[in-house]
Design a protein that fits this description.
By secondary structure, the protein is mainly α. It is 53% helix and 4% strand. The protein has one domain. A two-stranded antiparallel ribbon has the order 1-2. The protein has a two-stranded antiparallel ribbon with strand order 3-4. α4 runs antiparallel to α5 and α5 packs antiparallel against α9. The two termini are 34 Å apart.
């Protein structure tokens, strides 16, 4: 007997024969660069909830503000390249990573606070699967995430050393408050521009086969999957922080760059379309774009605020038409021997 094309799960959601659920909404592209003449749409995106500032930008500002004021060594100490203050920054980043990623994991996967409601893939993360370290996807992901923690912290410490000794171009927020704020708003766009090109690079077959394959073992992603990368990929991924070596900036810009790069993957790899609070309230996550990358591999290399995938023809918007198009593209690559 043929397996039915669709099923209805316990939440009344329609799932295909692979157990996949889709919201029916196309992939969301943020309008500033995708639709720059639509002023109404841009204003709604800037002021809305969820939008550019709320909730994620605001949460990052709280995290970096608290880290800068209370959990960063004095600048005078960082003039000298010493292990003591570096270990303090490592401990701070470790605690924040575990609180942030742990909160998402506990909500969605440990306590299953919303069950499979709005979950793209019907399955939970793998256990007793030998493709993962310790035969467990979560343990594997947590292990590799700490490679990223070390490399993120190494970049940050090197940049703090440079700021403390006056070697890096510095932007004074008191002298240039408007530019300071605009630079803070520009950080997510720079990070995603950088991520697109690095991501395309590591999909080059030699790098994919020896480096990026480790991340793509995670087809059914979870919060810890985002930072589960090979150390070489971590080196490339966090190299977005090196922009502060040449662009005048303040340490808060550098912290935002590092924290968003280190913590953002837990959001984009949650595996859920919404965070649902009870029967009424829900927070749209809009990370379907990156879920589709893990589903199909050769689409959606970037993220939603810099629409490079749309401009270069690699955008999968989640529609059946896009499915058919990219299946055709893949078949052509297989025939040509370039897949």
């Amino acid at each position: 007997m043929a397996k039915p094309k669709t099923t209805i799960d316990e939440h009344g959601q329609v799932r295909d024969r692979r157990g996949e659920w889709r919201s029916g909404r196309p992939v969301y592209l943020e309008p500033l660069l995708d639709d720059p003449t639509n002023v109404k749409k841009i204003v709604k995106w800037l002021t809305g909830f969820p939008g550019f500032f709320f909730p994620w930008f605001a949460l990052y500002m709280i995290v970096i503000g608290a880290s800068f004021v209370w959990f960063t060594p004095a600048m005078e100490r960082m003039q000298t390249f010493e292990l003591g203050w570096m270990l303090e920054i490592l401990l701070r980043n470790l605690v924040i990573l575990w609180i942030w990623n742990g909160a998402f994991h506990l909500w969605f996967y440990s306590y299953k606070m919303q069950g499979r409601l709005k979950k793209y893939n019907a399955n939970w993360q793998a256990e007793n699967n030998s493709i993962f370290l310790f035969d467990n996807q979560v343990y594997d992901n947590v292990f590799w995430a700490h490679s990223g923690l070390l490399i993120w912290t190494a970049y940050e410490c090197g940049l703090w050393w440079g700021y403390a000794n006056g070697w890096l171009p510095y932007l004074d927020p008191l002298e240039h408050p408007v530019i300071f704020c605009l630079m803070m708003m520009a950080v997510p766009f720079w990070r995603n521009f950088h991520f697109y090109w690095i991501h395309r690079l590591i999909h080059w077959k030699p790098l994919y086969d020896h480096v990026h394959y480790l991340h793509h073992k995670n087809v059914n992603v979870g919060p810890w999957s985002g930072m589960a990368m090979h150390p070489v990929e971590h080196l490339l991924y966090f190299s977005c922080m090196l922009v502060h070596v040449i662009v005048p900036s303040h340490p808060l810009h550098m912290l935002f760059n590092g924290f968003q790069t280190g913590l953002g993957p837990a959001v984009s790899h949650s595996g859920f379309d919404e965070i649902v609070f009870g029967d009424e309230a829900a927070l749209r996550n809009d990370r379907y774009m990156h879920y589709l990358h893990h589903r199909y591999h050769n689409v959606n290399y970037g993220e939603s605020n810099v629409p490079l995938d749309k401009w270069f023809g690699s955008l999968h918007d989640g529609s059946p038409e896009a499915d058919a198009h990219f299946r055709r593209v893949h078949s052509e690559r297989v025939k040509a021997g370039t897949a």
